[in-house]
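User: Hi! Is it possible to get a structure for several chains at once, not just one? Here's what I have:
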Amino acid sequence: MTQATHRDYVLGVWVDFANLFLAVCIFVMRNGMVEDQATIDRIRDGDYDAFEDLVEKYQGRVYRHLRKMVKDGRQAEDLLQETFLSAYKGLKGFSGSSSFSTWLFRIATNAALMFLRKKRPESVEYDDQINSTEDRGFMPASPEFIRTPLEILLSREGRDKIEAAIDSLPVLYRSTIVLRDVEGFSLKEVADIMDTSVAAVKSRLHRARNSVRETLSSYYTERNLSAN
Amino acid sequence: MKTCKQFCDKLSDYLDGEIAADECRLVEDHLEVCPPCALMYECLKTTVDICEQGVSDDMPEDVKTRLKMFLRTHCKSD
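Assistant: Yes, the chains can be modeled jointly so their relative placement is included. Here is the combined structure:
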């Protein structure tokens, strides 16, 4: 087998695997959407317990998103309550054109942005600055970061560093990276939730990921050097 | 001829499968022959991989309880 033929074969296997993975993802996602729709139908029929099932299913994720947006546990709790109350009252108007989770996260995001614009306008209005070296030219990456074992990267200390790196981003950037890389929404869904274009989401995600990468790379470079 | 920075600017979209097949091939070819960019890609991929597990979705039990009580009070009164 020539090198080119072998490469095409590997590529073909990879494409088959990717298609299978995509099909499984779509199946799981559609099942989740159908399940939510059935629960929503029960709520519309007056079954309050069904609403509590939806709250139970999504409360942790929505709380995490709000906590990252406003960086204040107490305020995130108030916004969480406001989000689910708005969702309950607005369920009659939920058309199902997007998934329930996208719709719910849009309500939460809007509530948090309204709060921030009212209480901390500077945190939203002057949001274009991001602490990244990317605009100052190409910066080589550090091997120390990827050499660090996963159990250290995801230890209590490691997770604190990830949270701090995300928290240091301006709100629109940290919301974008949380919705995409933590919550797993597609780029289109993130754009819908944040009421912006997919191009804007890609741009924010690129800058946010690189800023977090730089922060973590610097931290693990220093940490590993001081340990040696 | 693209510079390393131009390739690195594509890595986030590449990770998301958001670049065209021909451009994807160009990125992969470049990563094979350019160790600094390959390292940059590994760092970015590691960052994305650990983000999901790095941010906890733990919610304090008292916050859950207050949410349930709040919603029962305000939704059922409608």
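Residues 95 and 103 of chain A are 10 Å apart (CA to CA). Chain A is about 80% helix and 0% strand.

User: Great, thank you!
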